[in-house]
Amino acid sequence: MRGGGKAPARPRISYVIWSWFGSFVGIAATAYLTHVTGNSFETGTSFLIAPFGATCVIAFGLPDSPVAQPRNIVGGHFIFI
Hints:
This protein is mostly helical and 81 residues long. The protein has helices spanning 13-37, 50-61, 70-79. The protein is 58% helix and 0% strand.
């Protein structure tokens, strides 16, 4: 539980603010599209589902991560559509 390593450096406040802003805009756009279209297809389910929220957190919180690269994000969402 204690570990022997050091904690990573605290991110700059500007990085945190831009990450929050990007995530907010992405989730708000998805919510707006859900509201405008009513629902997706004829199932009555909304577009605002967990994978989009998780994608926003990964893409804006860890942009240098291999998982957050555009080919992985776009490709991953097309696989599950």
